[in-house]
Design a protein that fits this description.
The complex is a heterodimer of chains A (407) and B (164). Chain A folds into 2 domains: 294 residues, Cytochrome-c3 Hydrogenase, chain B (Orthogonal Bundle); 43 residues, no CATH class. Helices cover 49% and strands 14% of the residues of chain A. Chain A contains 15 helices and 10 strands. In chain A, helix 2 packs antiparallel against helix 3, helix 4 packs antiparallel against helix 5 and helix 5 packs antiparallel against helix 6. Chain B is α/β, with parallel strands linked by helices. Chain B has one domain: NADH:ubiquinone oxidoreductase Nqo5 subunit (Beta Polymerase, domain 2). Helix content of chain B is 25%, strand content 27%. Chain B is built from 4 helices and 7 strands; from the N terminus they run αββαββββαβα. In chain B, the strands form 2 sheets. A 5-stranded mixed sheet of chain B has the order 1-2-5-4-3, with helices on one face. The relative contact order of chain B is 0.12. The mean pLDDT of chain B is 90. The chains are: A alpha+beta (407), B alpha/beta (164). The interface between A and B is large, with 34 and 38 residues.
Chain lengths: 407, 164
């Protein structure tokens, strides 16, 4: 009988994308039990919210997470709007929901890439992340930003959308839908992928309920829970969509749920574009919010966001409490790791889709000639010049690449 | 579909004394305050066992001056959230763990301990959450009288080392 060994993984570890600590008790390669320590990213945002105004808090809360930024800001302002008793304009809510579903598309595609990477299928990552650029561009067109969209405001949204922008959304959705059909085919028919993901990170339905799992993790264990259905917010009550569940209870099931949810999101995006009413995009919100409290639920791509807000009649909240979906799901990870293989640990953790952030792509340069924006093409030419000055000429290589790519 | 007011009536049939301290703020939102902590477990168990509230969303801790309060947000499959609030005195803020009822309560109870200085009886040994391991005793950031300067006064972070 081999002796049990306890090994720490994290908080900083090549297999993890964000800080978390796992103490794994191993017998050979098998994980007997695990304990988790989180909190390394605690930034005191709840306390900071108490010292800022509601509008400032909205932007702060949007920065809790780079991927589900719209989820957090919406969950927060929904609570504030409820306390203030605002009459919400239909068009504002439609735009808010449109951005929400586009965000889900980008998040699920991103996850699919990460999952591909964790199981050594990097081609899948390259493909999905390439396709994800379509939805990132749409978000940038609609809101002005790739991440931290800043579209929300208390009482509605800050920017209206034009007919042309909505046409672009329809076109982009068409392409993404075709690509997603291919990924669904791939995930459900490619034997190596199915075998790698099946039976890994098992979470039985009763454990999913007991441990309070949310979102795709719960739905892949057959728990039919979705805040968009149970507690419809924004305009979800007007939309027709299916609640996706799966009974595989493993990482394979979680992949299937997310892929099929993408198809539901495309369906919703089309409905949102065609049904979008005319009219104002925001109601005027008071600076001081009357005393009261509200709890708001929001189905983020990773699961349910819960925000509690208590107002005291001033322009600053008395208390803001945030429960992000990863905190609900992280407790289920110990169960998923039990009796699994050590080598499966990265994909099991990645399968709950914990958060990490992306970055911007345009740089503003302040030069004596005045400020200017460098786009990707300028940056590329600039780098070629920069190397040429140092005796390394890459322009020929560039031409060769262009002729080979046929552009 | 069940309405929040129906749930309230069922709750009042069992606990008539909750009449003044319970309200429905909108559809699917029920707020109940059990200010006497000795009666809290009974109400919680009734809601879980007889009213089908089987999901714990989270627990919010509040600094209400002379008392510390905790709001247990529990949900049912029909989308109703029951916000069950209770309070304990600030000088003896002791709650009993609800892990026997909701397994996932553990991390939320650890949050109450770290950020507001609650004591939770019956919680198993385990790693703290979310503050760092070296966080000084008696510093509870979400209490209203806590300021970041409190920490600067007792920890050497950001201060030049003392000359010896």
């Amino acid at each position: 009988m081999a002796k049990n060994v306890v090994i720490p993984v994290g908080p900083q570890h090549p297999a993890l994308k964000e800080p978390a600590n796992f103490s794994l008790t191993l017998q050979g390669e098998k994980i007997l039990e695990s304990t988790i320590r989180v909190g390394y990213n605690h930034r005191g945002i709840e306390k900071a919210c108490e010292e800022r105004t509601y509008v400032q808090d909205m932007y702060l809360i949007e920065r809790i997470c780079g991927i589900c930024s719209h989820s957090h800001s919406t969950a927060f302002i929904q609570a504030v709007e409820e306390i203030a008793g605002l009459e919400m304009p239909g068009r504002g809510l439609y735009i808010r929901t449109l951005v929400a579903e586009l965000e889900r598309v980008h998040s699920h595609l991103l996850w699919l890439g990460v999952a591909g990477h964790e199981v050594g299928f990097d081609t899948l990552m390259m493909y999905t992340w390439r396709d994800r650029e379509i939805v990132m561009d749409l978000l940038q067109v609609l809101t002005g930003n790739r991440v931290n969209y800043g579209i929300n405001t208390i009482g509605g949204v800050r920017r209206d959308v034009t007919k042309e922008q909505l046409d672009d959304v329809m076109k982009g959705t068409q392409t993404l839908e075709e690509r997603t059909k291919y990924y669904i085919e791939l995930a459900t028919q490619e034997p190596t992928l199915i075998q790698r993901l099946s039976g890994v990170g098992v979470l039985k339905p009763e454990d999913a309920v007991n441990l309070g799992a949310v979102g795709p993790v719960a739905r892949a264990s057959g728990v039919a829970r979705d805040a968009r259905k149970e507690d419809p917010y924004a305009v979800y009550a007007d939309l027709e969509f299916n609640l996706i569940t799966d009974n595989h209870n493993d990482v394979f099931g979680r992949a299937v749920v997310r892929l099929l949810e993408l198809m539901e999101s495309y369906k919703m995006i089309r409905q949102l574009v065609t049904k979008m009413p005319d009219g104002p995009i925001a109601a005027k919100a008071p600076r001081k919010i009357p005393a009261g409290e509200a709890i708001s639920r929001y189905e983020a791509p990773r699961g349910e966001d819960v925000h509690y807000v208590k107002a005291n009649g001033t322009e600053k909240p008395e208390r803001v409490k945030v429960r992000a979906p990863t905190l609900a799901n992280i407790q289920a990870v110990t169960k998923m790791l039990e009796n699994g293989q050590l080598a499966d640990m990265p994909i099991v953790v990645a399968a709950i889709d914990p958060c990490f952030s992306c970055t911007d792509r345009a740089i503003e340069i302040v030069s004596p000639d005045g400020p200017g924006i460098l786009v990707w093409k300028d940056l590329r030419e600039w780098s070629i010049e920069w190397y040429k000055e140092r005796g390394l000429d890459l322009s020929g290589l560039n031409k060769k690449l262009i002729s080979r790519l046929g552009r | 579909m069940r309405e929040a007011d129906q749930v309230r009536q069922e709750l009042l049939a069992k606990f008539p004394w909750l009449d003044a301290s319970s309200r429905v703020s909108r559809s699917r939102r029920l707020w109940v305050e059990v200010s006497d902590y000795s009666k809290f477990a009974e109400v919680l168990n009734f809601a879980v066992k007889n009213l089908d509230f089987d999901i714990l969303c989270t627990i919010t801790g509040l600094d209400d001056g002379p008392v510390l309060s905790a709001v247990y947000h529990i949900a049912a499959k029909d989308g109703i959230i029951l916000n069950l609030k209770t309070s304990v005195p600030r000088d003896r803020p002791v709650l009993r763990s609800i892990v026997p009822v909701f397994t996932n309560a553990e991390i939320y109870e650890r949050e109450l301990i770290d950020l507001l200085g609650f004591k939770v009886e019956g919680l198993r040994e385990g790693k703290r959450y979310p503050l760092p391991d070296g966080w000084p005793e008696g510093q509870y950031p979400l209490r209203k009288d806590w300021k970041p300067e409190n920490l600067d006064a007792i920890t050497p972070y950001g201060k030049p080392p003392k000359e010896s």
